[in-house]
């Protein structure tokens, strides 16, 4: 395991502590001294202490299903991830495409499909040649 | 290649028999969607999804997804620099007398020597030579 020593100079002195073990700290006049001291503290700590891991099943449940405001457990469904199929460029002949046959007539029962085409045509009729918009210059 | 105008893509998904016949005749590897067609279909579906009533919203978003998958089954021709050169010539010649998106699609066809497939052949008649224009809905297959 690698632990992180946080070393902070302050008022001409150096303060060091182990990030993972905030009680393991040392203070000295130089950076090297502070590091040496904190290393010794860490070694002492490791010699006299043991690490016990404690599994708390209720806590796990709580973390997975945070309670909503009304006190009832909230059901959290994992989001369904959908892989977006890529669009294929016309010049990319390395990709083999499944033919779109299954899409023949796929929207024929969709009452919005043909009206959408009418709207597309109307918008094409209306589209003027766009001009580059420049930012307004404020008069001083 | 045969570049589908939006009306052809829409009619294919609406099960138009002559579009299907023409696809069988030329083969899928000869067909592509120009990017303006993709953009128009996508805009139409996206707007529907965003403006759907509460009753329609689930369905509208599903249709948006279906349309996306539909598009991914086609080769998509992007509007590139070569098309821009042709586009600028058309703009200079016709100014606002022709529809902007029509000129985009026509420029792409001119740049790559493609055929525009559309139901609106009258809109494209001045933009393209007859050999680069086809109507797969109202005219018999050539």
Structural description of this entry:
- The complex is a heterodimer of chains A (140) and B (142).
- With 140 residues, chain A is of the alpha+beta class.
- Chain A is 29% helix and 16% strand.
- Chain A has 3 helices and 4 strands.
- Chain A has helices at residues 31-48, 57-64, 113-126; strands at 5-10, 13-18, 21-28, 88-89.
- Chain A has a 3-stranded antiparallel beta sheet with strand order 1-2-3, covered by helices on one side.
- In chain A, a hairpin with a 2-residue loop joins strand 1 and strand 2 (13-18).
- The two termini of chain A are 64 Å apart.
- The model of chain A has no long low-confidence stretch (mean pLDDT 82).
- Chain B is α/β, with parallel strands linked by helices and 142 residues long.
- Helices cover 58% and strands 11% of the residues of chain B.
- Chain B contains 7 helices and 5 strands; from the N terminus they run E-H-H-E-H-H-E-H-H-E-H-E.
- In chain B, helix 3 (35-51) runs antiparallel to helix 4 and helix 5 (81-94) packs across helix 6.
- At the A-B interface, strand 4 and helix 3 of A face helix 1, helix 3, helix 4, strand 3 and helix 6 of B.
Written as H for each helix and E for each strand, in order along the chain, the element string of chain A is: EEEHHEH
Strand order of the largest sheet of chain B: 3-2-1-4-5
Give a quick account of the main beta sheet of chain A: strands, pairing sense, barrel closure.
Answer: 3 strands, antiparallel
The SSE order of chain B reads EHHEHHEHHEHE
Query: Could you tell me the number of beta strands of chain B?
Result: 5
Question: What are the segments of chain A in which pLDDT stays under 50 over at least 5 consecutive residues?
Answer: none
Question: What structural category arises from helix and sheet content of chain B?
Answer: alpha/beta
| E-strand count of chain A | 4
Number of helices of chain A: 3
**Terminal-residue CA separation of chain B:** 15 Å
Mean pLDDT of chain B: 95
DSSP strand (E) fraction of chain A? 15-25%
The chain pair forming the largest interface, with residue counts per chain, is: A-B, 35 and 41 residues
| Helix share bin of chain A | 25-40%
Report Rg of chain B: 16 Å
Q: How do the strands line up in the largest sheet of chain A? A: 1-2-3
- Beta-strand percentage range of chain B: 5-15%
